[in-house]
Amino acid sequence: MSQINKIALIREMLASAEASIRSANQLLIEMPGGDAIARKDYAGLAAEVTSSTSGGRVIEGVFNGEKMTDSKGETYSVPTNYASKSKLVEGDVLKLTITDDGRFLYKQIGPVPRKTLIGPLTYDDGKYKVIAGGKAYSVLLASVTFYHAEIGDNVTIIVPDSGDAIWGAVDNVLPKNVSPEDLEGSDISEE
Fold first, then answer.
1. In terms of CB atoms within 10 Å, which of 50, 76, 108, 158 comes out highest?
2. What count of other Cβ atoms lies within 10 Å of the Cβ of residue 90?
3. pTM for this model (two decimals)
4. What is the rounded CA–CA span in Å between residue 183 and residue 164?
5. What phi, psi does 140 have (nearest 5°)?
6. How confident is the model at residue 190 (pLDDT cuts 50, 70, 90)?
7. CB atoms near residue 188 (< 10 Å)
8. E-assigned strands of the chain?
9. What is the pLDDT of residues 59-78, one digit of tens each?
10. Does an H or E element contain 144, and which?
């Protein structure tokens, strides 16, 4: 077997292993009480995620709404523009590559199941929040400014499908002439 074929086989095996780990994480989350445990233990979830790469250091972890937590409980700042643009939600698995020249490169490798909610944008305790589904979800300032949202605007947010999330990812701002009631019967759920 040639060197190139061996490398391709190794990459295929690694991709298969990563997919198996993501599936195992999903089964854990779907177990009764598993999601509640997993949400509180980002380091434990990150310990189940492994990876290999050449050139730089690779760290995998779980996004907690603001930062990534690795299997050792260490946290790494995730740029808010990346989190906003990628619409990351709590529980998403991320891979951080720290290159040999010191750059931090993030990649989302395991999104959790999601749902979309609608609610008004508010500002409380120095944070922007969206009131949706009977709960206040914090949202990143970068998302609010990107969408030019104003307090009182109806905003669609993405949250994990299950569990007790604190953060939501802004998906969009509804036009001023569209209310949540106008969207009844659409794919967007207002729980």
1. 158
2. 22
3. 0.66
4. 25
5. -75, 140
6. very low
7. 16
8. 57-63, 67-70, 75-77, 93-98, 104-110, 114-124, 127-132, 135-138, 154-160, 169-173
9. 999 999 999 999 999 999 99
10. helix 141-146
Whole-angstrom distance, CA of residue 27 vs CA of residue 13: 21
Question: Which domains are assigned to the chain?
Answer: 3-110 (no CATH), 114-183 (2.40.50.140)
Which of 66, 99, 58 lies closest to 83, judged by CA? 66
Question: What is each CA distance from 152 to 52, 118, 135, 144, in whole angstroms?
Answer: 46, 12, 16, 12
Burial annotation 126-161 (CB, 10 A radius, 16+ → b, else e): eebbbbbbebbbbbbebbbeebebeeebbbbbbbbb
Q: Is the dihedral of CA 29, 164, 162, 83 positive or negative?
A: negative
Report how many helices (DSSP H) and strands (DSSP E) the chain contains, helices first. 5, 10
Amino acid letter, residue 188: I
